[in-house]
């Protein structure tokens, strides 16, 4: 698609982004509660993969590159496209905390950054990673969803290999924090 074709329909890049945002928001799909953190995260990842692999994703790929040099465009991308994903991810976290699936998080919006960032990295920036599904295998988006899900579950404090025991009382303990230390060589 040429630049002239784009400008016949939209007066500026910002107008193009707003038009894309409307499409992106509709691609988010319904906000659904699957009853589990794993199910909710899988749905969110699949929705993002489908969007990024479709026509809107190709356009978004171009806009992300341009946003690096255009602060106004970057602001529009953030507020019109990324913020709805942040809100949806925060809802996923709030439901998971309410069910006792994970301990409370200091900032539930961080999950959106992990979802969007990991999907964009996998589908846009990894050479040879993007491919359609075949009868013999999944699409790159399906594969990315399957690969990323365990890491995202771990990142938000979900127990590995199952769910927290459902007991009356306080929320389950958070996972042990990783402590950074500097090791000095022995002389």
Can you walk me through this structure?
The chain starts with a helix and ends in a 32-residue tail after the last helix. Helix 3 (37-53) crosses helix 4 and helix 4 (55-67) crosses helix 5. It contains seven helices and no strands. Helices cover 60% and strands 0% of the residues.
Poorly predicted ranges (pLDDT <50, ≥5 residues)? 163-168
Which whole number gives the mean pLDDT?
A: 77
Percent of residues in helices comes to 55-70%
Largest sheet, described in full? none
User: What structural class is derived from the secondary structure elements?
Assistant: mainly alpha
* Total of helices: 7
Series of secondary-structure elements, N-terminal to C-terminal: HHHHHHH
Q: What Rg is obtained from the alpha carbons, in whole angstroms? A: 19 Å
Broad shape: globular
* Strand residue percentage: under 5%
**What's the N-to-C terminus distance?**
62 Å
- How many strand segments? 0
């Amino acid at each position: 698609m040429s630049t002239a074709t784009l400008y016949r329909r939209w007066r500026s890049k910002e107008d193009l982004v707003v038009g894309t945002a409307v499409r992106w928001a509709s691609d988010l799909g319904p906000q659904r509660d699957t009853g589990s953190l794993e199910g909710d995260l899988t749905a969110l990842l699949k929705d993002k993969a489908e969007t990024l692999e479709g026509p809107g994703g190709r356009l978004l790929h171009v806009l992300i590159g341009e946003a690096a040099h255009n602060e106004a465009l970057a602001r529009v991308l953030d507020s019109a496209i990324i913020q709805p994903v942040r809100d949806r991810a925060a809802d996923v976290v709030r439901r998971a905390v309410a069910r006792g699936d994970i301990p409370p998080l200091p900032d539930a919006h961080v999950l959106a950054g992990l979802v969007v960032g990991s999907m964009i990295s996998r589908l846009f920036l990894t050479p040879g990673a993007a491919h359609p599904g075949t009868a013999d295998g999944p699409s790159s988006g399906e594969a990315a969803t399957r690969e990323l899900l365990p890491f995202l579950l771990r990142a938000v404090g979900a127990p590995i290999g199952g769910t927290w025991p459902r007991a009356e009382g306080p929320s389950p303990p958070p996972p042990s924090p990783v402590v950074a230390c500097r090791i000095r060589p022995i002389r």
